Task: structure prediction
Amino acid sequence: MFDLSNSVLLDLIKHQRFGVEYQPIVAIDTNEIVAYEALSRFYDVAGKAIRPDLVYASLHDNPLSLYQVEYAQKCLQLSNMPKAHQVFVNLDQDAFYACGGEVADNPILGAIQQVGKGRVVVELIENSEINDALMSLSMIEAFSNLGIGTALDDLCNPRSMLSVAVMQLVEWIKLDKYVLKMQDDVSYMVFVSKIIEFAHVTGKRVILEGVETAEDLAFAERIGVDYVQGFFYRDNFIYF
Result:
């Protein structure tokens, strides 16, 4: 993957060229917005958008900088969140633990607590590293003890592994947009249907990401998810 130059990263961090895009999460049955996901946005000196995945991939080589950017982003996302809705925030496991010390003293955790109980759901990203699953379990435990909701993001993405322990503990499951791409694959959809069934039997709520068309929405209704998110609702995006 292409890494950003040090000069671009330093300028981005020094001048905090950050933004937030709040994407609505919409209930299938009522078509009402029930929450928003806060997504990190980054810009260069000319105001041109920089892909967030490139920023975070480059920052992983410097844990302290990764933490600084993640903390600044969370503060920005939480201070400008829509007041009448829950907000989902992504949290990088490596960034969360990069500051060291006790989990309970983590400033990111403190920033989430200040918003108020029940207002924030923390999304944990599963990928191909077993250590990430172990960190996710530790984070979920810390959040649960404080009454902070958790969600498992990007489930069914081909690059993500599946941790049963993590999936059992979260309250929300977010299906990756890859599910839409694979909707004609019968065996794959059997797996997806069982994930949705498991979620509902165990009291979890399911969100399908990447919904862009009326056909995508109809597919989401057919497979029985509870909520959807994506560019189909771009008119309801909020930018800061």
